[in-house]
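A note from the maintainers: we've had questions about how concatenated examples are separated. There is no special marker in the raw files; a new sequence line simply starts the next protein. For clarity in this README we add a label.
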Amino acid sequence: MVRIEKIMFWVADDVLHCKQVSTYDNIKIDINIDQKLQESLYAICNGKFLPLLIDLRAVNGQEALTIVKQLALSTTLKQISLSEAIVVNSLFLKLIIGCYKRIYDFTLPVKTFISLNNAKKYCLETNRIFNSEQ
């Protein structure tokens, strides 16, 4: 497990999980934080490309959008992620984040879910497809 600022990252079942662990307070992911992410995430991923599951169910709408926007700036996450599954707590957030990702951050396949189980299934399927082609 790795904690960078107020976000926790860990690997379970060949999925890189991401979850906010305390109030976000508009912290920006700058170059230094992306460098910390690079060092830490490469270590916990063991050099493998993994799907990223971002769990935002415990945060409000504004915090969720801020986190998604800031994580989108991370070149490290784009380099090690096969896909992104974002779990939110409302249909409204699902639509807003889905639109944002399609317009501004379209480098990875992204799906937004309300169900954590469906998000995990998507991640496992992405991982299975990627690894079957190698």
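[label: protein 2]
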Amino acid sequence: MKINIILTAVAVAASLCACSRSGSSSDDRGRAEASASETKQEEESKADWQLLDDSMFIATIEPWPAKEGAATLKAEATMDDGDQKFAGTVAYRIAPSETNSVAWQAMPRVREDADGSIYFQVPITLSKGTTYVQFRVLDKGDKEPTDLDWKVVVK
């Protein structure tokens, strides 16, 4: 008899917890979806990747939204998890498809900030339609470069 009462109490408690969690989960999902749609434009205006050394590589196109014609491609390489500044190279290419043979172009460094981030910038020309902005990041000491893709719709 005691075991049935305890099992019943546990089952009721578990049921109440499950109901409470499922109610809050759907509310949280709704908030997350609303938040995602509200910030969609901002998220599309840049691309960022966490590299293997825990540094971040962040790319932007100015002006945004991307339009056909002249623009500026900018990138930032942050310090890694060992507080080491990026000491490598960045190359880029603008291509009409994700898989392509467009030649890589060196992306010149333009400055460094007080936090140790290194900035790159280059003028580009964008064509209307879907464009793939691709980066090849090779930090000092890396054996292989890291290739990064950013799909951009140019209006």
